Amino acid sequence: MKKVLLFTCFISLCMITEIAAQNVDSLNARKAELNSEISRLQAERDQTVKLIPPTFGWKTGFTGLVGFSLTEMNNWVTSSHPNSSTSTIQFSSSGFINLLEEKYFWRNSGLLNVGWQKLDLKREDVEDESRYRLNVDVFQLTSHFGYKFGSNFAASALAELRSTLIENSFDPAYLDVGVGGTWTPNPNLVVVVHPLNYNFIFSSDELDYESSLGAKIIVNYRQEIIEGFKLRSHFTGFVSYEDADDLSNYTWTTGVNFNVLKGIGVGVEYALRWNKQETRLFEDDLQSYFLLGLSYSF
User: Fold this and answer.
1) Residue 104 pLDDT > 70, yes or no?
2) Quick one: which of 240, 258, 257 has its CA closest to 249?
3) CB within 8 A of 58, min separation 6: which ones?
4) How far are the Cα atoms of 67, 102, 225 from residue 292, in angstroms, in the given order?
């Protein structure tokens, strides 16, 4: 009888252990399912948050990029200047101050890009060349007002000033003033189409520029692709109704910034510009610049 009782207890203990093991496996499987569901819900929440329109009120932002290079050659006979040093410094910055309300918006932005280059031939008879010379000078201000007729469309008016700031300041200067419509499909993309726009050009008597009536197109895109990696692209163009080939112009600037520590990181910026009135004395109509350096933003 005692053996039967011991055997029964042993069998019961095995069954209890097996049931407990099954419960643990079931709980672990349920835990994995819940963790997967939590991850899915968090990802869905993040996507939903991105689609929520920005809160009303004033919004500001600033981004900058500083690039520099230094080249030193001593008796490098394969170069046209075997004994020389070259250094460049370039600074690019852009900022915005925007007012977003339920029925209207007012976006204001500015851009400044300046750069200097120095060539030192290490020769006493060429003293003038061993100094920094300006090689990039871009200045732009934009003010854009719109009254909304829905969540994505608005009637708008815009003024944009483009010129140089340091050398030949505001000679020439381009001022676009016009009205039309603005499409904002999401907070990161703004498309402006103004079919009624006048392109004023101010210049000295020595420079022959022609103002004209036309259409203004602006596309501005900003997006944080992944955390700390931001893309920005800005296109501004004018199509003249009087002479589309010679009086039109466009500028397209694209840059990426990778944040490393507290707004400081690495950035790249590239720009293309086409304006026949500016390049009439040159063989190539297309202008461009490239900048790689340290970036900062806040």
Assistant:
1) yes
2) 240
3) 97, 98, 99
4) 6, 39, 19
Residue-range domain boundaries for the chain: 1-52, 55-297
CA distances in angstroms from 149 to 49, 51, 146, 190, listed in the order given: 24, 19, 10, 15
Lowest mean pLDDT among 79-88, 156-165, 265-274: 79-88
Do 225 and 187 form a contact (C-beta atoms < 8 A)?
no
Q: Which amino acid is at 278?
A: E
CATH of 55-297, one of 1.25.40, 2.40.230, 2.60.120, 3.40.50: 2.40.230
Listed in sequence order, the DSSP H helices in the chain are: 2-51
Instruction: Quote the CA–CA distance of 298 and 289 in Å, as a whole number.
Output: 25
How many residues can be counted in the chain? 298
- Asked whether the predicted pLDDT for residue 19 surpasses 70, the reply is no
DSSP-assigned letters across all residues of 246-290: TS-EEEEEEEEEEEEETTEEEEEEEEEEEETTTSTTSS--EEEEE
252 band by pLDDT with thresholds 50, 70 and 90: very high
Euclidean distance between CA atoms 41 and 146, whole angstroms? 36
